[in-house]
Amino acid sequence: MSARLTRRGALALPLLAAGAASAQQDFPTRPVTVIVPFPPGGATDLIARPLGAALQKVWGQSVVLQNRGGAGGGIGMAAGAAARPDGYTALIAHVSYSSIPAADALFGRPPSLDRTALAPVALLTADPLVVVVKADAPWRTWLDYVADAKRRPGEIAYGSSGPYSALHLPFEMLAQAGEMRLNHVPYSGGGPAMTAVLGGQVSATASVPSVVNPFIRGGQMRALVHTGAQRVALLPDCPTAIELGFRSVEFYLWVGLFTQAGVEPAIQRRLREGVAAALREPEMQRQLETTGMVVDHREGAAFQAFLDADRVRIEAAINRIGRVE
């Protein structure tokens, strides 16, 4: 009987393999959860919500967005990394993917995020940060701002969304490149920092083009410089730091999709195919165009190369800033 069972088991192996291959090919066969590690309304939501709707259309399955904010994105990203590696829990991540481990290392803390537990699926967007001041501020250009800051070291204040955040890092990169010392004032988020600029509590802050453009068009703010490699269509008159001579300054508030490293390659491929199809959906393109976000779709080696270069820039910036208690 034992031999008969063994033969049956051997005969069943090809059927099991065929069933597994079919499951991978048919993925997803049930709802997919996408963790967004920030509260609703931020830059990650601007891409996550239309992406979720487009993926739902492409796959014919529900896509559930789950906002899990806290610890600068660390709580949600850790939850995504620890999820069951079956492809049914994806993760939206941004710059904190690199900044959280770098800050942990700086303070000698145990790592709160294991990046090796995550597999990059696709880069979605990569927006530069635009430095803005009030429209009636005395600085007409970024060079004016730098010259004034050099005359008054530590006196000119700017607002960020917290230490080592996506607003703090580019400002300190600019300060380092311009050989100036600014007064960093952290707020609870980018919105409060923007409000502080409009209220005159701080001189400047930064955000992505889609966020600052309404304030600029409405005559409330002026853009001085941005941190991308080339000018952006939404703000064609705003120069890059690189073209002004600050060649070490390049920074992006990027948004990408990740899954767990243990997810089978065939399912990772299905996730990449789903994202690529979703980005071609007319409604998704319309929503991104409305918000002013520009797609920067990269997969595989191209996305990994982007992450590697971004990590180097982020780690260098955090080490220059030093410990902020």
TrEMBL record:
Pfam families: TctC
The organism's place on the tree of life at top rank: Bacteria
UniProt keyword Cell membrane, yes or no: no
UniProt similarity note: Belongs to the UPF0065 (bug) family.
Gene3D superfamilies: Bordetella uptake gene, domain 1, Periplasmic binding protein-like II
Keywords per UniProt: Signal
The protein's name in its UniProt record: Tripartite tricarboxylate transporter substrate binding protein
Region forming the signal peptide: 1-23
CDD domains: PBP2_Bug_TTT
